[in-house]
Design brief:
The chain is α/β, with parallel strands linked by helices. Helices cover 44% and strands 14% of the residues. It has a nine-stranded mixed beta sheet with strand order 3-4-5-2-1-6-7-8-9, sandwiched between helices. It has a six-stranded parallel beta sheet with strand order 14-11-10-15-16-17, sandwiched between helices.
Length: 560
């Protein structure tokens, strides 16, 4: 007889990105909320930092009546200043935003408590560590206050999930003061793993030889590493997002994750039905080509192959350097017989939209002449030090008329109000023919997931969780004909990766219309298999494990 799984009666989740859109964790939480809400209704509560006090947060709708009695009690009895409302994402779950600034007064006491109870070493703390741990402490008190006010007990099967090192102190607080709550901690990328990769040190070939504590000291991230490691060891269920990051956790945190929680998504951001989808794609291509032609003084038509990469501006970790290098190889490839425009869509230290480009775009008729700098859409602070432009200069990529491959840097956050495209990233992504995300360090990889959701085939690597999963999906090396091409990448095969990307782009450029339609359909099929309805089962496995261990933990405490 199969074991009956323990399911949560309440779920609390805390992240720096609750109602605060700054990275991939926002997508994880906001897209999964609907699936959880359908099962638990308003017993799913997200706890985030209140950065918007006194001003409108477009992602949050405050309610003066929702949980009003508890909110009043939390202020009067627990010193918690809270705003409660709805997170404006599908499912509209309850969001609790806490003003954590008053707790800075006891910051040193918090750090002392963390050391005395869990040996979290905060002595070398700097930067965002203080802010994160003070918020995390406040988040733990929010859960404690809620459980106390509503009289929740172990029988209610309450679980709390902390995301990333920024909130894991909350899990430790709850373990100590609300032991009837089962705790989970999810690291989406270990602090030390990201630091090793970001400092251009070989991560994977030497992973099993690295000492995480030693490397944390060498790279000056001891405090973040310490709280992360102690959370991994002390919560009821430790999780991460991919097998490759699981290996990283085992090597650098000395702790194998209990469950792998792969990052699913909902496809409700993809236009439907087909008529709307095709219209959105046509509009995106029109906009992309207009900006490209205006910038470069060209007359490229709809048969131009549009390629892009996107995500955070992590030049090495995201493989931006490999992408540009592969484009340089592509422009010298004799087999390429199509015009290519490649967009590097990564937010940089952007100052403003280019006035000359804005003016040229508004003109009724294009001048037919390239602008003074035909490779970038916005003005940067310290533009001469930018890495993308520096690599383009090094490779002598200047978007000359005779170049078969032209590269355009879009260094702004595409929120629909950038001054040039005035369309969101998703609204432009749908117009691409193919995307490239050759990541070196990528625990999961939402950018390729988003790409295939829009039926845009993509190239990624087997150092990305998504790439490994895509290979597993096929049961071998997945190829571009399948909708995704996963390139083998290691610490030392830069040239091979670059060549493979170049060759794959050439191969794709030569497919006929019918073949492209098949590839696009295959990409969409891959995306369907990554929906939350398929991945949510892993969360319930983690909840079950956390609740089981909570029961053991409490039984051991009662026996003392």
């Amino acid at each position: 007889m199969a074991k009956k799984i323990k399911e949560p009666g309440y779920i609390f989740e805390s992240s720096w990105e609750v109602c605060n859109k700054v990275g991939g964790i926002y997508t994880v939480l906001s897209t999964r909320a609907k699936t959880l809400q359908e099962k638990l209704a308003d017993k799913v509560l997200f706890v985030g930092p209140d950065f918007w006090a006194g001003k409108k947060n477009p992602l949050f709708k405050e309610s003066k009546t929702l949980l009003s009695k508890w909110r009043k009690s939390a202020l009067e009895n627990d010193g918690l200043s809270l705003r409660v409302g709805r997170w404006l994402v599908p499912g509209e779950p309850i969001a609790i935003l806490v003003d954590f600034k008053p707790f800075f007064e006891i910051k040193n006491d918090i750090f002392a408590w963390a050391w005395e109870n869990y040996h979290v070493d905060s002595l070398q703390a700097y930067g965002d560590y203080d802010e994160s741990l003070v918020f995390s402490w406040a988040a733990g008190k929010v859960v404690e206050s809620y459980c106390k006010f509503f009289g929740l007990t172990a029988a209610d099967n309450v679980v709390f999930q902390a995301h990333e090192w920024q909130t894991c102190l909350a899990a430790l607080y709850i373990n100590k003061y609300v032991p009837e709550v089962a705790t989970l901690f999810t690291t989406h990328a270990t602090t030390i793993g990201r630091s090793i990769a970001g400092n251009n040190k070989p991560l994977y070939d030497y992973l099993d030889q690295y000492n995480g504590d030693q490397m944390a000291a060498e790279l000056n991230v001891q405090a973040k590493h310490s709280v992360e490691k102690q959370a991994a060891w002390n919560v009821d269920c430790f999780t991460t997002v991919s097998d490759i990051t699981g290996r990283e956790c085992a090597a650098l945190l000395d702790k194998q994750p209990d469950v792998i929680l792969m990052n699913g998504f909902e496809d409700d951001f993809v236009p439907s039905p087909v008529v709307k989808f095709n219209a959105a794609r046509k509009e995106a291509r029109k906009c992309l080509l207009k900006v490209a032609n205006t910038l470069m003084g060209t007359e490229l038509g709809d048969d131009t192959l549009l390629v892009s990469t996107g995500g955070r501006y992590e030049y090495l970790n995201k493989g931006i350097n490999v992408f540009i290098d592969s484009l340089n190889r592509l422009r010298w490839n004799d087999k390429l017989d199509r015009q290519v425009v490649a967009f590097v869509m990564v937010p940089a230290w952007m100052k403003e939209a280019r006035e000359d480009l804005k003016k040229a775009l508004k003109a009724k008729q294009a001048s037919g002449e390239a602008l003074s700098e035909p490779r970038i859409t916005h003005v940067l602070h310290e533009q001469e030090a930018d890495k993308v432009l520096g690599q383009l200069n090094w490779l002598d990529i200047h978007n000359r008329p005779e170049d078969k491959v032209k590269v355009i840097f879009v260094p702004c956050y595409l929120d629909g109000n950038d001054g040039i495209f005035n369309m969101s990233y998703y609204d432009l992504l749908i117009g691409m023919d193919i995307t490239v995300f050759p990541s070196y360090y990528e625990p999961w990889g939402y950018t390729p997931t988003e790409s295939v959701a829009f039926h845009v085939p993509c190239i990624t690597t087997d150092l990305a969780g998504f790439g490994i999963w895509a290979n597993d999906l096929k049961g071998g090396s997945i190829e571009i004909e399948d909708g995704v091409k996963t390139v083998h990448r290691s610490d030392y095969n830069f040239n091979e990766v670059s060549d493979t990307i170049c060759d794959t782009l050439v191969k794709f450029s030569k497919l006929d219309k019918k073949q492209v339609t098949t590839v696009r359909r295959n990409a969409a099929n891959v995306a369907e298999k990554a929906l939350w309805k398929h991945f949510i089962k892993y969360y319930y496995e983690a909840y079950d494990k956390a609740l089981e261990r909570r029961d053991v933990r409490m039984a051991q405490k009662d026996a003392l």
